[in-house]
Amino acid sequence: MAISLFILGGARSGKSRFAVTQLPHRGRIVFVATAEARDAEMARRIERHRAERPHHWRTVEEPLELVSRLGQLEGACDGVIVDCLTLWVSNRLLRGDLDDAILDEASALARLIGRRQSSFTIVSNEVGTGVHPDTAVGLRFRDLLGTVNQRLAAACDTVVLMVAGLPLTLKSATPIPRPDDATVPAP
Q1: Can you tell me the distance from the alpha carbon of 132 to that of 139, in angstroms, rounded to the nearest whole number?
Q2: In Å, how far from its chain's centre is CA 162?
Q3: At the top level of CATH, which class does the domain 4-171 belong to?
Q4: 152: nearest Cα among 53, 76, 84
Q5: Residue 176, SS3?
Q6: What is the pTM of this model?
Q7: Handedness of CA 58, 63, 67, 72 (dihedral sign)
Q8: Sorting pLDDT into bands at 50, 70 and 90, what band is 185?
Q9: H/E/C letters for each residue in the chain?
Q10: 3-state secondary structure of 125
Q11: Most Cβ neighbours (<10 Å): which of 44, 109, 135, 141?
């Protein structure tokens, strides 16, 4: 059964490591990387992430045309990890894309996940809880990524927030009993 998982968290919260552990290491897994090695630090991070993945997984680098590339992968694999939406939104902004175009693509990605033939794991940063950006570009990025994250969280079966390497489930495909549910024993 194809499932969808959206993983949010801050920088170095363990998002990527958690994403890799959530798919079976066997099967046809495609890792879609949105990062570009624009400097030495990013090149090191990319190499570290590659080393954490099973070597038989296929890696596809797609910094801009994510929905189109994922559409090409439909039915050709058992699972897809997209790491990460944060860099994808940033890459699109740096290219000069308008907010509406990026949001339209996020909606198209949500629809793709909704009709999925493969399991999807999507990684993104939660940037709304950090330092308030002091530039117009920073505010635009924060607000845009927040809206993109909301659209993907609504489309996915399960949403997990990573904090200090610990996964906190925000939304689950399996119903979580409420305290007033008669099936939950009283303390």
Answers
A1: 8
A2: 12
A3: alpha beta
A4: 84
A5: coil
A6: 0.87
A7: negative
A8: very low
A9: CCCEEEEEECCCCCHHHHHHHHCCCCCCEEEEECCCCCCHHHHHHHHHHHHHCCCCCEEEECCCCHHHHHHHHCCCCCEEEEECHHHHHHHHHHHCCCHHHHHHHHHHHHHHHHCCCCEEEEEEECCCCCCCCCCHHHHHHHHHHHHHHHHHHHHCCEEEEEECCEEEEEECCCCCCCCCCCCCCCC
A10: strand
A11: 109
Alpha carbons 51 and 64: distance in angstroms, whole number: 24
Burial grade of 133 (CB within 10 A; 0-12, 13-18, 19 or more):
middle
Which sequence positions are flagged as catalytic?
Answer: 49
Please indicate whether residue 128 or residue 10 has the higher confidence score (pLDDT): 10
Domain extents in the chain: 4-171
Residue 11 has pLDDT above 90, yes or no: no
| Number of neighbours of residue 21 by Cβ within 10 angstroms | 12
Distance of CA 4 to the CA centre of its chain: 10
**Residue 63 and residue 34 in contact, taking contact as beta carbons nearer than 8 Å:** yes
Q: How far is CA 158 from the centre of its chain?
A: 12
pLDDT at 19 over 50: yes
Cβ–Cβ contacts within 10 Å for residue 54, how many? 12
pLDDT in tens, 79-137: 999 999 999 999 999 999 999 999 999 999 999 999 888 899 999 999 988 788 889 99
Count CB atoms within 10 A of the CB of residue 90. 19
